[in-house]
Design brief:
The chain has about 375 residues and is mainly α. Helix content is about 80%, strand content about 0%. The chain starts with a helix and ends with a helix.
């Protein structure tokens, strides 16, 4: 309870960056780098507030649907940022942020949850069947990224005319793979919420449980969620506008900015909620938020952005990722699959997940421009 109050106070303090960013943008006309940094900080408390409102909703519906709600609305900030990046034609930034969200959720968020929860409890258990299904679906998503990327790089040495035809084929293949991924995601929801809902109920989670704090009504939670999402959209437009210049002035590549910085900003809601429930020994809900969020990014958000790019972007986006991005996703999925295999976690497994995330972050930071 004390930790949550402290987190709430920090969020309220960081909200001051919202008016600061607006003043810098419309009054001072500050540099793009300054606006990128202040808008990034402003999105963090807004995403956290979105996470808190969905946590209040989750208290009424149980761990399974609660985890889905947290993952869905936690990803709203990421989706909003990606849409503005699509409009600006920053396809590399969009793909990098998708990669960063996938590896950030299953390595950083789940790693922090396992580490901090493991320091408080010697062993934390979760439903092995549900966790294994999640890791298997993540493996499917990795395959969906590998296939178009592999075909693209196999054709990379073709002549210009053949290369143009290959680019068109990559776009068509990305659309077809997107349909398959979305269908698999919808069926996974049927499995989790209807046919095998008992596997996702978790333990110790009663409807309306608020741990001493009065529960928000559904109406209030929804109003806060919509309001925060609207301001996130405003901040995201400013963030994307300064992304390229900020990357150059700070000595970072656009890929690193997308994989690490933008992904961390967009996933702030999951960071707070997943860790807090792990500290309450509710690892079922924590892993459903972390893994479920990565699944939504890979099986729903990424395919959805492919379709949206035909309407909102200057050019359609495909699912051809860089070799390092493909390797990062594949390695992360394999590591999480090993962790989920025995249905329990301890603090050392959290350390291992975080170590893999740091290694991948170093690789992206040292990626040639």
């Amino acid at each position: 309870m004390a930790l949550k109050l402290k987190a709430d106070q920090i969020l309220l303090l960081l909200l001051v960056f919202v008016p600061i960013t607006l003043v810098l943008e419309y009054v001072v006309h500050a540099s793009a780098t300054t606006l990128f940094l202040t808008s990034a900080v402003a999105i963090v408390p807004l995403a956290g507030i979105m996470g808190k409102s969905t946590e209040m909703l989750a208290e009424h519906v149980g761990a399974g649907l609660g985890g889905l709600l947290n993952a869905t609305f936690g990803n709203a900030a990421e989706l909003i940022i990606a849409i503005f990046a699509l409009r600006a034609g920053l396809h590399d930034l969009v793909k990098a942020s998708l990669t960063g969200s996938i590896i950030g959720n299953i390595l950083l968020i789940f790693g922090l949850s396992a580490l901090l929860g493991g320091l408080k409890f010697r062993k934390q258990v979760f439903n092995r069947t549900a966790a294994k299904l999640g890791s298997t679906l993540l493996l499917l998503s990795a395959v969906g990224l590998v296939i178009p990327s592999l075909l693209h790089y196999l054709r990379d040495g073709a002549e210009s005319g053949a290369a143009a035809a290959a680019g068109a084929e990559s776009g068509s293949l990305s659309l077809e793979i997107s349909v398959v991924l979305i269908v698999c995601y919808i069926l996974s929801l049927v499995f989790a919420l209807r046919t095998h809902a008992d596997l996702y109920q978790g333990t110790g989670h009663a409807a309306g449980e608020t741990h001493g704090a009065p529960a928000w009504s559904k109406g209030k939670s929804f109003a806060v969620l919509v309001g925060a999402a609207a301001v996130v959209g405003w901040m995201s437009e400013i963030l994307v506008g300064g992304a390229e210049e900020a990357a150059h002035s700070l000595g970072m590549t656009e890929v690193f900015v997308g994989v690490i910085v933008v992904a961390l900003v967009g996933n702030a809601a999951e960071h707070s909620t997943a860790v807090l429930v792990a500290l309450r020994n509710k690892m079922d809900l924590s892993i459903q938020i972390a893994v479920g969020s990565s699944l939504q990014i890979a099986l729903l958000i990424a395919p959805l952005l492919v379709f949206l790019s035909y309407a909102v972007g200057p050019a359609p986006i495909d699912l051809v990722f860089s070799p390092l991005e493909v390797v990062a996703v594949a390695v992360s999925v394999l590591v999480v699959g090993q962790i989920a295999d025995d249905g329990q976690t301890h603090w050392m497994e959290g350390v291992l997940l975080l170590a893999v995330y740091v290694l991948l972050a170093l690789a992206f930071f040292n990626l040639p421009a």
